[in-house]
Amino acid sequence: MTPPAIDPGTISARLDRLPATRSIWKLVVLLSLGFFFELYDLLYTGYVAPGLVKGGLLTSTTQGLFGTTGVASFIAALFAGLFVGTLACGFLADRFGRRAIFTYSLLWYTLANVVMAFQHTAYGLNLWRFIAGVGIGVELVTIGTYICELVPKHVRGRAFACEQAIGFTAVPVVAFLSYLLVPRAPFGIDGWRWVVLIGAHGALFVWWIRRALPESPRWLAQQGRFDEADRVMRTLEAKVEAEAGYPLPPPAPALPVRAQGRFADLWVTPYRRRTLMLATFNVFQTIGFYGFANWVPTLMVKQGITVTTSLMYSTLIALAAPVGPLIGLFVADRFERKTVIVLMAGASIVCGLWFSQAAGAVLLVSLGICLTLANNIMSYSYHAYQSELFPTSIRARAVGFVYSWSRFSGIFTAFLIAAVLGQFGTVGVFVLIAGAMAVVILVIGLMGRRTLGIPLEAISQ
User: Which domains can be identified in the chain, with CATH numbers?
Assistant: First the structure.
């Protein structure tokens, strides 16, 4: 039998013809566990905010549009760090590899969170939340890139749905822990500090996860490290063939693969249109997603619900967080990513405006669950979508650049929502969210391209 050729195009073709056996899904699950700890750290903001206000470290409203002692400044500090991490550091995974950056960025933000848990001033909180945000931003880019390159084309959608399903189980976990701990001070330590420190245990798992993950063979081949790429593929092919119980089919003819890329490549055809589309999309989807996710307990408190009750309602809503991606495990590779994004943005508009008018507990929680489902189905869809639209040579830096606009938007969204909430109440907040989602529908609906079931190299042409 003639040994297979070793070049970037052939490595990709060999990977794309693999059936989705246990070994493939094991890689996805391991990366998804990393995503769990990342989302825990990313999304605990809204749940610990009432505790920070109760403890006198922050205020629920902001003194002046860009005041630094309110909840909005704490949220903005996170998004400022995410902006720096995704924009300025997204290239690291392209330069040093997916595996190394996956590991060290997780350790970075875990350590920063431990330090933040012992702060006693608004300045210290915001500083260390910013530093943690840098690491989380790098990790977000790296995990999406890593999954996109490790799985065959016919399971990309389901792989991202699995990642988000496992990751979003962090939401009910952090919501429930906040419900138990934030109103209290176990052993004399504020409950919100316990919530932060519990999340820091992700560092204990990172080395175990890392040991079982290979480097992306697509990235290795792109770097000219063909022998290493071939070894990774041979090991994976042997496992998959044994699990499948039949010989693997020959790979399809190799498609051309772009050579080493530069940041300037984002601004040439066909990537310029994709870059502008996704940058605009990310500015506005952030208003919808985090405008709700980070403010649920605060919005309810503003409506006259007590801190404890709002955290209980938020916990019930949070239980729906992994359900949207779980649905995706069955449907993600049946429907175009752009179509799902548009439909879920529309559902967010309807449910959000209705939520702003709701009064009864059952209706309030039900609409919150519907909003969470719509947002999280959209989330796994666009994470897959933006990773698919760029070639391996610039994938991490391209995703980092377009995603950074989500983080840039998040900085100002926090202050904007605080101001709107103070002036116009929850109705004003959800009118703002509806307008942002309308822009999402237009930009993706008019400018997006098909990616379902298409090899990454063909999408890159």
Answer: 8-245+264-459 (1.20.1250.20)
